């Protein structure tokens, strides 16, 4: 009986061993990690910084998937290319999810979606319109103009050369991104050349995206078990029962987002310029100069990362210079008027047209108004100072009033402006009589009765 019991126990352990080992391995295996990032708004330096740090964190924590929830009107080309480079170099698969309903992946967002390892959209979202925006040139979507007289066709062709160059480069870039994950390269090129757009359902049917999901849970459920190409190698996604964690931008990304706002950068620049002007007007004040220098440096740092039109910046500086010239050397309003116009036009032209990066007209109006008010106040102070009589020095004695202290034989002493002066007069005077100064001969005052009889 003992031998039979031992044999039976061994058989039970032998049969149950693999099952127990599998259960233990399943319990020991941690749940997959999915990190989520939110790209909401224009694509700029702050967005690139945020996603770069986020994808680095995903790699460090060995996440199974990084999800970028996106709703963007577009943004800067340089920042877009930085984000795409980070996605392509990421050791963690990246999914771009255009959500919620009504969201869009326009312009730069379309490029980022094409670069992702897995593309998904919420019903009601849309994407496309990825044509590069050119300022000061012809519309890249405009048809070829018919030949005209005097070489008009050649002139138009020269004007469109740069537009065609940029558009062709963007189309090639989109095709190369489409080839990485086998997406619809033909439609991607249409989005660049013709500003084509698609709804979520149309994008799925056209092979632009892989998944149509109502929320993040639906996306992860559909993504589980799918195979994507990561750095040229097939990778199977594990997202079932994943631990989902959303990473918010850190303080650096938030600060960068604030100062790279065109309105904030513009105001910092103007505060810096006027702070230095006040410091030069009142040397030793320290405060305006220190604040102005800090604001000017931060503003220039922000402008370095924004699509700046340097001609607009030069026109702004010229306008400020003319306003200051009006304050110091009044030109009957000519300097002030030209300065206000120059400042307004320069402000309008300061930033090149880019989706999501536009200077508010209200900020421009307020800034120009404050600048004109500053000049008006300075002019008023200068006029009042010119009209005010001299209050110190030798010239201040003219028409000053005084009182006769002693007098004899047409001369004596008069108390004026807190001092006793030797004086003479053609009129007879008596001590205690009020007089006023009519002139001066060296240190002798020539006085007359203040209220002659």
Describe the overall structure.
There is one protein chain. The chain has 453 residues and is α/β, with parallel strands linked by helices. The chain folds into three domains: 30-146 and 161-250, 2-enoyl-CoA Hydratase, Chain A, domain 1 (Alpha-Beta Complex); 253-387; 394-449, Nucleic acid-binding proteins (OB fold (Dihydrolipoamide Acetyltransferase, E2P), Beta Barrel), CATH 2.40.50. 50% of the residues lie in helices and 18% in strands. The chain has 14 helices and 16 strands. The protein has helices at 2-28, 45-60, 77-89, 108-115, 152-181, 185-193, 200-205, 216-223, 251-259, 262-281, 287-304, 310-328, 334-349, 361-387, and strands spanning 33-40, 65-71, 94-98, 104-106, 118-121, 126-128, 197-199, 211-212, 227-230, 233-236, 243-246, 401-408, 411-416, 419-424, 434-441, 444-449. A six-stranded parallel sheet has the order 8-5-3-2-1-11, with helices on both faces. Strands 12-13-14-16-15 form a five-stranded mixed beta barrel. A three-stranded mixed sheet has the order 4-6-7. A hairpin with a 2-residue loop joins strand 9 (227-230) and strand 10 (233-236). Helix 12 runs antiparallel to helix 13 (334-349) and helix 13 (334-349) runs antiparallel to helix 14. The longest helix has 30 residues, at 152-181. The relative contact order is 0.08.
Oligomer: single chain
Overall number of strands: 16
State the major sheet. Answer: 6 strands, parallel
Give the strand line-up of the largest sheet.
8-5-3-2-1-11
What's the overall geometry?
Answer: elongated
